[in-house]
Prior knowledge:
Blueprint: E1 11-17, E2 21-28, E3 31-38, H1 47-62, E4 67-74, H2 80-91, E5 98-102, H3 106-110, E6 117-121, E7 125-130, E8 136-140, H4 152-168, H5 176-184, H6 193-198, H7 203-207, H8 211-218, H9 222-244, E9 251-255, H10 257-261, H11 263-277, E10 282-285, H12 291-308
Parallel strand pairs: 1-4, 4-5, 6-9, 9-10
Antiparallel strand pairs: 1-2, 2-3, 6-7, 7-8
Helix pairs in contact: 1-2, 4-9, 5-8, 8-9, 9-11
Amino acid sequence: MTLMPSETEALTVGIDIGGTKTHLRAQRQTQIRDRILPSHEWRVRDWDVNAVRLLELTAELVDRSPVAAIAIGAHGCDDADECLAFERAFAARTSVPVRVVNDAELMPLALDLTGQIGIVAGTGSIAVCRTAAGEMLVAGGWGWIIGDEGSAASLVREAVRVIADHFDAGGSRHEPLIDLIFDALQVPAVPRLGSSLSALQTAAEIGRHAEVVFEAANRGSDLALRVIRDGGKTLAHLVDLLDRRGAGAQHAVAGGSVIVSQPLLWQAFAEGLAQTSGGRITPHLFTGKPVEGACRLAASLAQTEGQRGIAAPLHL
């Protein structure tokens, strides 16, 4: 029987799979090895293929060092069944313990806030937590066409909607948000506003124009300020939905490219959460690296499996 390597010998591996990039980190005490690569270079819509490729990437990273546990936060693993399906794909190929969670769960874990709510507001958005009984609760994450509240793509979508309402009410063409959106989306004429947005097709293409909404707000656009304020409130509403479903959380940790880089959105979220929770849930802005949460989870998993005496191979 192959024995579990000692803590001083074995590495733990944390992996943050984002929609844009994947961050792998192997850790042994204070020693850290990192690798970051675009997610599209390795990821496909197949749990088995992805498990094989991630194990290959992990083996390259650890370079024949023993591995005690692997923890993964995966964008797109949006319910417990999907997380378990990914775990089973690993279990079929390695006896190293592997745990899979949604990538939003990594941020509270990174702050050592186990069982609290994580909110991602980047290209898309989602809110996730685990109850005391271990049930995975999710709100949002429906994609930019109907949801992803407070995300980059959603902010652009809502900016276009607000502009359309503005024109329907007889509003003037001259407003900072209108000028910037028309320029960014290359809108040739007012009637072509909606088709110019839909022509972009993907959340990534739409979301890259979100910065103009904040630029318009800084230029004094009332329309832009309304979009940002509503975006923050809808993110807070996701937290409220989880709270009503029994999350039992006292903290909500928000991160992602948009909310971290745009103070106006963070302020709107924090104010919205204070209103909906009556101050019971404390908001936190996560500015670190989500992979830190995966590493904490991997270390905890290694300790648990080691206490059970479960064997694992020394090498992947």
